[in-house]
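A reminder before we start the practical. When you read a complex entry, don't treat the lines as separate problems. The point of joint prediction is that each chain is placed relative to the others, so the output describes one connected object in space. Small molecules and nucleic acid strands, if listed, are placed in the same frame. In the example below there are two entries. Take a minute to note the order of the lines before looking further.
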Amino acid sequence: MGLKVGDSFYYLKRHILYLMTGFFAFSFALNLDLNKLKKSTFPVLGVSLFLLLLLFVPFFGKSLGGATRWLNFYFFSFQPSELVKFAMILFLASSLSQLKDGIKDFVKGLLPLLVILGVVAGIIIKQPDMGTALSIMATSFLMFFIAGARFVHLFSIFLAGGSAVFVLSFFSAYRLKRLLAFVDPWKDPLGIGFHIIQSLLAVGSGGFFGLGLGNSRQKFYYLPQQYADFIFAVLCEELGFIGAFALIVLFMIFCFRGAKIAAGAKDPFSSLLAFGLISMFFVQTALNIMVVIALIPTTGIPLPFVSYGGTTTIVNLFAVGLLANISRK
Amino acid sequence: MNKKRLKLFLILIFVVFGIVIIRLIDIQIVHHSFYKQKAQNQRRRIIPIAMERGDIYDREGRLLATSVDVKSIYINPKEFRDYAKLENVLGKKIPRFSNKKLFAWVKRKVDFLTAKKIEEIGIPGVYFLDEKKRVYPKGRLAAQILGFVGLDNEGLSGIELGMEDYLKGEEQNIVTESDPSGYELLTKRESKKKKVSSGSDIYLTIDESIQFFAERELERTVAEYSALSGLIIVIDVENGEILALAGKPDFDPNYYAKSNPKNWHCKSVDIYEPGSTFKVITAASGLDCGVITLDTKLRALDQFEIGGRVIKNSHQINWGGNSTVSVSKMLEQSINTAVAQIGIKMGKERFYQKIRQFGFGDLIGLGLPGESRGIVKEPSTWYAPDIAMMTFGQSIAVTPVQLCAAYMSIANDGNLIRPQLIKKIQNEDLSFIKKSRREEIGKSLSSKAAEDARLLLGNVVLKGSGRKAKIEGFTVGGKTGTAQKAAEGGRGYLKDRYIASFIGFAPLSKPKILALVLVDEPKRVIWGETVCGPAFKNVVENTLRYLNIKPDNG
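Here is the predicted structure of the whole assembly.
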């Protein structure tokens, strides 16, 4: 764990720095010319894929917790998959808006997009980062759906994707463990079930009103990634059901507002872009929370706007800037 | 944008978050206490705080058991590499520990020289922990009474075990919360008890000097007759305080692990069949019930039959041509057939009541572990010969301390006094938890019957089988016993295996000291008078002179 001993404000200080950077990203996105953005789809996708592949070059890739997800530069590290998320949404918004009803054709419409999605997701899975791959796939799926793809196609993709994830789980020891732990965490409470159980204990001990802000006990190394992927468990413990409920309501309002922006956007590209971005927030929020309360097996996805993390905060604020931009027009 | 599909998307959001909220209600509200309890339990660490164990002293405050500071060596296998070096200093092999471990004992409670040597060499990964070690400065003296403690200073035998609750002090647990590696969390500490106190000091009624006489006499006696074991009890008749409680063979509690476990236990609270020493109890009971007087004549019989069993004498009695024998003569010569007649005269119920009034069948509560209450059968379960056999101490099991208490009541005009081993229990702050005092627990005899019984006991020493117990300058009363050993677990008696004993007190005119000498399976000579008489005489004489008791006989 990257905890600097002796500075209890280590994460807070870093996060404030990210927020400040994120504010610039937000302002930049707010004033971006959307037409120019549409035209730069391929460069953005290209650069982000290049950065993604750079992870596999030993000098640049930085490993943490058994996965190589960060690019190491001299004074900061950077998570390319966060950028790829945005690049994919941009790419799909642009392609789908051009395809229009062509999406209904499987071979000419959907298939090429699926191939690109498959390649991108495949590279990310290889890092390995199942959580990000999963959210990119789910977001893309929602975009195909809103763009008008046929139900039969969507259903087939869902089945194929679902079984692919399932099969992949059996090829990786740690994914299989997570799956087994999900099925029965109490079978091995100190081994594979540890994280799930600790998360449930945190959520459960919060009760209705919570232990009070800052009073979490479980955050002291019982919870994995208590400041990142499992932040929601700490929130549940400290703020109780009331706090968790309020946060979910806020996310729902945010999603509805986003959907309204998508529905009211001037052109198909902006509309699809807004929808893609809001889907991304929805997918990530839902997956993160469902992991914490053990509705789905453990996979590493940050909770938007709540989890600690540099790249994710900046990219999220950039996305909010874009949404505001679209809303304004 | 397809409005219908957007609506479906919004429904999806509702459904997903709806499920999440239902799940949260289930975890946070419905099953709240389950998870809360589990979370609390895994963080709880109960840290017992070792209190300093109380010391044990004799009645005069002479130290018998105490605790000293020692060092224990442990290593952190993660940091520790130089096994050879440490093995060299310690002179013993150290098991190779996994370097994943953070803690492993190497040697507990080493002496200061070794600890200092290792500290000076300074081997990385080797650490010391201050601990307390129990020591018994007088070695074997009173070992069976004191007992010993285990590695964690918990009482395992003797007073150390019997009085553990006082010696170890109030148990103090600190309850803390900690993270999975055991580091304490900065939450409030809850202590179960407010006041921390060390163990209390215990002062025994034992007098180190008298104990020493008794042990020396007993050791000599047991060796002389190649006996299995022996026991001497010396009691202050006036208040029931046990001045000496010697058992041989014994052990050195400083090295108890190297000794024979058979020698650890003090037999003073174990049961045995008292044999002829019990005849005095029968005679006194008969006098008290009025079924006999000092003038009563009992029939002179070599044997008689009762309930299909022949009651015989243990040796040929010289009746001197008389057809009767006096009560006094019965005791002097220890005649089974005569004493049995007293029991039969009393009848089952009355005899049983008297036996119970002497304290047999009741716990005394000395403070030693494993004390027995004896075996006194209910009259309804007696076999026909029992009424005869019990009069001379068979078919009944008592503890040596109970027998002492019964004799003590004869010396005390029929007042049953509780024998005591604990003089006082003193707290850290010098306040007393307990102070022994004379404690009357019953009345066994009328004072007239007790006086008559003392006369009879005096006659046994003057003219009878107790002559070897005579002490110059003092009048002595007592009784011998040569009991066949009862077969363990089964019925019947072991051939040629005896417990020889002598019990009595002095001075007879104003009893002060009572002593019981008991020798298990003496070889060559079996008679209580020969085996135990001299030891009784020496111990009691020494004790009387040590206590400056005025001679009452010339």
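Discuss with your neighbour: The interface with chain A takes residues 1-3, 5-6, 8-10, 13-14, 16-17, 19-21, 23-25, 27-29, 31-32, 34-36, 38-40, 42-43, 177, 179-181, 185, 187 of chain B (CB under 8 Å). What might explain this?
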